[in-house]
Design goal:
Structural class: mainly alpha
Radius of gyration: 18 Å
CATH topology of the largest domain: Endonuclease III, domain 1
Distance between the termini: 47 Å
Mean pLDDT: 91
Number of strands: 0
Number of domains: 2
Shape: globular
Low-confidence stretches: 1-5
Number of helices: 13
CATH superfamily of the largest domain: Hypothetical protein, domain 2
Helix content: 55-70%
CATH architecture of the largest domain: Orthogonal Bundle
């Protein structure tokens, strides 16, 4: 018997989340009021495999540098759509040519190996799994850590109650909206954001936005 599909951050959930966050956190309420841009968009244009591959390339690089390497990597494939089979056939020289390091090459090849073995669930299967099950499944892949899977949970699956406590942007935004110079530790952030439940993904989104205001 299938489990109940987990809720996504639909317009209805987003509206409820904003109302809840404004009631429980006046600092967050000010950011929500000040931000006039678009809400969080669930990015389903890429498969989970493509999302994780992109995340590996972006690790420990500035956005601009990572974006350049990612575009070069995509250009190696027809229609700029890498598949596990085609990625597995790449030679080391192809990775180096586009700027992918040896460590990331190993991670990408392990990702492709898992995908070819059917060990990376598709959207339908992921939606039957809870957050921790997905984290446990995907962090078994070399080069995929908890933060990467949390980004997939928020931006692809639209899970409304994910708190990426190790994310530098979330920590910076949290400190900024409170006028603090010292960033919260993951433990402090977890404790302070408990009142955001069950909408911590939306709270995290506005922490990111706080760094832009």
């Amino acid at each position: 018997m299938l489990k109940t599909i987990k809720p996504r951050t639909t317009a209805e959930i987003w509206k409820a989340g904003i109302g809840h966050l404004c009631r429980v956190d006046p600092h967050l309420a000010r950011v929500i009021t000040a931000y006039t841009g678009p809400p969080l968009d669930n990015q389903r244009r890429r498969s989970p495999f493509e999302f994780l591959l992109r995340s590996i390339i972006y690790q420990q690089l500035s956005g601009q540098a990572a974006g350049t390497i990612h575009l070069r990597f995509l250009a190696l494939f027809p229609m700029k759509r890498p598949t596990p089979e085609r990625v597995s056939q790449l030679k080391p020289a192809s990775f180096r040519k586009v700027g992918v390091s040896g460590g990331k090459e190993r991670a990408i090849l392990d990702l492709a190996r898992h995908a070819r073995a059917g060990l990376i669930p598709g959207f339908a299967a992921l939606e039957q799994m809870d957050d921790e099950q997905i984290i446990e499944t995907l962090t078994a892949i070399h080069g995929i850590g908890r933060w990467t899977v949390e980004m997939l949970l928020i931006f692809q699956l639209g899970r409304p109650d994910v708190l990426p406590v190790a994310d530098l942007g979330v920590r910076k935004g949290f400190a900024r909206m409170r006028g603090k110079k010292v960033l919260p530790t993951p433990k402090q952030l977890t404790r302070a954001a408990k009142k955001w439940q069950p909408y911590r993904s939306i709270g995290s989104w506005y922490c990111w936005r706080a760094t832009e205001l």
